[in-house]
Write a structure and sequence with these properties.
Helix 1 (16-26) crosses helix 5. It is built from 6 helices and 7 strands. The chain has helices spanning 16-26, 51-62, 100-110, 175-181, 183-200, 206-212; strands spanning 7-11, 30-34, 70-79, 118-129, 132-145, 161-163, 168-169. The chain is an alpha/beta fold and 213 residues long. It is globular. The relative contact order is 0.17.
Length: 213
């Protein structure tokens, strides 16, 4: 009996931290590859006002560049005391080409003296094929903001995001532990379950998908 062939799936991200988490969440049953030629494809404008809108925009745009299934995520941090900011602007909170450090510094400054520090990470994954939306998947994790970054793990706002059940910031938690509960892991588990079910019901044929490439 031939071993089961893993599903073949593309993702479109230039963020190495996200790619690492994608691969960790989908390993074993899904062969995940970055979209070929991604670096040469001009990024689309992100004009959505929600994570869902931006994820769908990007998935439809990038899925025109391959024949197989492709997913994109849009994710960020919502801070209650800032009316949900930085939200969809999380990656560019301190400017169009902001570094993680600059974003964290600005957020720390904006939160100075504020006692309500509840926040959540949100991730929406959009799955598409040839400019057709297939499905979206959402994950959220609740926590609170620390007054100063702690920990060198993770990326983005992880060092500022304290997760009470761990008693640690996401920047202090080992990545394997973070991926047990994170917003991105939740959304990707939804994606994986959907694709596993699609294979079982013959909606997706990984062998046929490979033959088309």
């Amino acid at each position: 009996m031939k071993p089961k062939r893993p599903l073949r799936l593309y993702c479109a991200t230039t963020n190495p931290g996200k790619l690492r988490e994608f691969q960790m969440a989908l390993r074993d049953s899904i062969q995940l590859d970055a979209l070929p030629g991604l670096a040469s494809i001009p990024p689309p404008d992100e004009t959505g006002v929600t994570f869902e809108e931006n994820a769908v925009q990007k998935a439809l745009y990038y899925s025109k560049h391959c024949d197989n299934y492709l997913f994109v995520d849009d994710s960020g941090l919502e801070v209650d005391a800032l009316s949900g900011a930085p939200g969809v602007y999380s990656a560019r909170f301190a400017g169009p080409n902001a570094t993680d450090s600059a974003n964290n510094q600005l957020l720390t400054a904006r939160m100075h003296g504020i006692t309500n520090r509840t926040a959540r990470f949100v991730c929406v994954v959009a799955l598409a094929k040839q400019a057709r939306l297939v499905h979206t998947f959402r994950g959220e994790v609740e926590g609170r903001l620390m007054e100063a970054p702690r920990g060198a793990n993770g990326f983005g706002y992880d060092p500022l995001f304290f997760y009470p059940p761990f008693g640690l910031s996401f920047g202090e938690a080992p990545i394997e532990r973070k991926m047990e509960v994170s917003h991105r892991a939740q959304a990707l588990r939804g994606l994986k379950a959907y694709l596993d079910d699609a294979v079982l019901t013959n909606l997706y044929d990984p062998v046929r998908a490979e033959e088309k490439e």
